[in-house]
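Per-residue structure
===
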Amino acid sequence: MEQAIGYIRVSTEEQSADDKYGIEVQKQAIQSYAGDNGYEIVDWLTDTISGAKDNRPELDKILYQPDQLPRHDAVIVFKNDRVARDTKLYFYYFYTLEKRNVALLSTEEHFTEGDDFANIYRSLLMFVAEQERKNIALRTSRGRSLKAQCGGYSGGNKPYGYYVVDGILMQNPKERPIVEIAFREHDINHATLADICEILYDRGYRTRKGKRFQPSTIRGILSNRKFYEGKYKYGDMGWVQGVHAPILPLEVQR
């Protein structure tokens, strides 16, 4: 009986949703395929990462560190897009294994190995998977842009003074004073950035990483005045009225 590695991939998006192609589904399909085709699964490797990315530690073991794994004649996956959704990546992985006489087998896509049609079929499947990935990315991008146009938080770093609940920016009572002190000292007392850092430190305020505030961080807060006044900006879009509650009252002037 020939030996095989069972390789499983799920993306973070799939894990956070009701994934019909989750780990157990893929594992059962691979185990069944192996039994029907005379293979013994000698090891299981699982990655949790998008198929469009090539930095996958478990797949890297199969490709570049085979001596760390049991001897194997094949790698069995649930579907070819579990290996990669990018066509170029897929064929790179495919030929890397082929050079070691290791077959890359799919439980869902069946064809005779080695013939011309097999290569054409693989290419077509990978092209479709790659287009699907691009379409998903496009839909996600459009959704974020639409939300941003309505003033809603669309991802990225959370400004000081806020945290996110169910995709909505909410004021953080522990951080709000940091923003208020920064603007009050800058606007009213004309304090320097270094002075503001010193004031925050003396009052016991630290960054989110527990460190002393630096002038660059304070500069970032002060340069985001419109946001703190209730506006929102995403990417290359212009400022729009945000849906988050402003920290700065309207009477705070430059």
